[in-house]
Amino acid sequence: MKHNDIKIGCHVSIAKSVDLAIDRALEVNGNTFQIFTKNPRGWAAKQMQEEEIQKFKAKSKKHNLSPIFGHISYLPNLASTDPEIYSKSLESFLNEIERCKILGVQYFVVHGGSYKSSSFEKGMSRYVESILEGINSTRGKVVILIENSSGGANSLTSSHKNISLILDEINDKTAVQVCFDTCHAFGSGYDLRDEKAVDATVDDIQTHFGFDNISLIHANDSIGELNSNRDRHQHLGLGEIGEKGFKALINNPNFKKKPWILETPINEIRGDSENIRYLHSLIRNENN
Length: 288
What we know:
Helix 3 (83-103) packs parallel to helix 4 (120-138). The strands form two sheets. This protein has an eight-stranded parallel β-barrel, surrounded by five helices. The radius of gyration is 18 Å and the shape is globular. The mean pLDDT is 95. The protein is an alpha/beta fold. Strand 1 (8-11), helix 1 (20-27) and strand 2 form a beta-alpha-beta unit. It has one domain: TIM Barrel, CATH 3.20.20. The chain has helices spanning 20-27, 50-62, 83-103, 120-138, 160-170, 182-187, 195-208, 242-251, 253-256, 272-281; strands spanning 8-11, 33-36, 68-71, 107-110, 143-147, 176-181, 214-219, 221-222, 233-234, 260-262.
């Protein structure tokens, strides 16, 4: 697999007009990208204008930026058993799926949810019920990606075993697949710091749900230590996973063939283009 065959991009803003996300993806030399389809910090969703929708579609086609990933906003909790929170969460979830359909966004990443103040069984049941509603809403146009979490109390998707349980319950692996976040995996106890550790994590993934069911890698280094349950992203190679870990990840044949989306910080140390360039620099040439 050549460098330019590997899909690497980042999460970009839709500020001012959704089509500007494509300009921002191109500015950092990405060949794929991820967006929120609405303001991620509130329940309300501003209606998209037809002009920006058409511009988004035209630009993505012109520049061959694909696949395109949407990401659920911060507030929804699809495992909540609180009636008010769940009602708002489901409404937002379905609305954001609809926005993905309108824009032609092929994949939609969702968090695993928390069963706080309830039980694992009730949280799991509620979550599966939510995803099934989402599948009905997608009408085959958007694949829902369940994201692994960094763990902690009441977390549904911090283990490969639990993700496998969800996929088995839903039983539609063309409609629902997995987003594997490196920072979250590390925080929940899956070591990724060198080739041996990555191989062990690969084996565990293959045991539970397999790489055929992973459609996206979220590439983030971790401020938190292994099994810390901390979801704090760091620039690639500068966190606890480190350069050796990301070199092993990007050159592992199972990970390498998947699209990579970076959700790393933007500060005086690096921006998105620098992190994308850094990840490319770790890729070994096929002839080596």
